[in-house]
Amino acid sequence: MPHALVIHAARDLRIEETPSEPLAPHQVRIHMRAGGICGSDLHYYQHGGFGTVRVKQPMVLGHEVSGQVVEVGSEVQHLKVGTRASISPSRPCGHCSYCQQGQHNHCLNMHFYGSAMPWPHIQGAFRQELIVESWQVHPVADTVTDGEAAMAEPLSVALHAVRRAGPLLGKRVLVTGCGPIGALIVLAARHAGASEIVATDITDQTLARARAVGADVTLNMATHPEMLDPYKADKGSVDVLFEASGNAQALRAAFEVLKPRGIIAQVGTGGEVSIPLNVLVAKEFELRGCFRFHEEFAWAVDLMNRGILDVKPLISHSLPYTEFAQAFELAADRHQSMKVQLTFA
């Protein structure tokens, strides 16, 4: 029987057998090829959850995945056996009020792979075999590797954040936090026409990768926090802030460099933070939350298929799923890793 990576509690991740299930007419059987370890997967592994979200039953991890079609349902006409694809982990119901308004990422009945938020938990995609709805399957070009195809999900998050921020053509952009999502925002902001992208982080390794995907200026705030000072002149000189760290200190520091009526696209999550409301009011900032994605997934795959966006510089490690312990330890070490992926071939 196919294997899956199942989390039971903090530091209790196991390889377990999962039964093969029959296909419904509109479904597709996927042999998984690659899966990226996300921050949420890491929290489940290290702490058994995050915030109030806890693992309460065994759950397959993973949602950043790619694979190959090995069987199609009787009603599936547009996909063939052998097709390589990115697999969208987002399965909105399509019927609730938010779905009907085109806000599928706010679906009231969302099924998102590898999530302990609902009860029962939504099982994830770190497995050798997965049955999906045919509309979740986005074919990739021969030029796109399995690892790149698995980057479609985090790239979709970045594209959604850029969309939420509004037009970037000719704008000066600041990205705080250059983990995988922050670095992908750099890539997406460059594609959207930002004239200058400044990126901050606290490790040189992540900043080097941010430069590799388009950052013009990179600043290590742990060693040289004063490097942001020139951007504070005349009430600030940054048009748009993408806050991807979830760190309150990073957000407050960015308030000083953001110009009046600047846009704050908050992507990182870090629990409750305090912000200087007097500054937000006086400089008339717009604070916009950015949550997941929907149609951006297809855009992400298309941009990679056409060679417009290159995510390869952000894939730092690839290990067999049987070496999951080493992979998760690598993913937790920001000094030597960016995006760590597992292979299931």
Write the element-wise H/E pattern from the N-terminal end onward.
EEEHEEEEEEHEEEHHEHEHEEHEHEHEHE
Q: How much of the polypeptide forms β-strand, as a percent range? A: 25-35%
| CATH third-level topology of the largest domain | Quinone Oxidoreductase, Chain A, domain 1
Structural class: alpha/beta
Provide the low-confidence segments as ranges.
Answer: none
CATH architecture term of the largest domain = Alpha-Beta Complex
Please tally the β strands and state the result: 20
Taking the sheet with the most strands, its summary is: 7 strands, mixed
Residues in helices, as a percent range: 25-40%
Identify the CATH homologous superfamily of the largest domain. Answer: Medium-chain alcohol dehydrogenases, catalytic domain
Calculate the mean pLDDT score and round it.
96
Shape: globular
- Per DSSP, the total helix count is 10
Could you tell me the radius of gyration in angstroms? 20 Å
CATH class group of the largest domain: Alpha Beta
Number of domains: 2
What would you say this structure looks like, in words?
The strands form five sheets. Strands 3, 7, 8, 11, 12, 19 and 20 form a seven-stranded mixed beta sheet that branches. Strands 15-14-13-16-17-18 form a six-stranded parallel beta sheet, sandwiched between helices. It has two domains: 3-151 and 311-343, Quinone Oxidoreductase, Chain A, domain 1; 157-289, Rossmann fold, CATH 3.40.50. The protein has 345 residues and is an alpha/beta fold. The model has no long low-confidence stretch (mean pLDDT 96). It has helices at residues 39-47, 97-100, 146-149, 152-165, 180-191, 204-212, 248-257, 277-282, 296-305, 324-332, and strands at residues 3-9, 12-17, 27-36, 49-50, 53-54, 59-60, 64-72, 84-87, 90-91, 111-112, 129-133, 137-139, 172-176, 196-201, 217-220, 238-243, 258-266, 286-289, 315-320, 339-343.
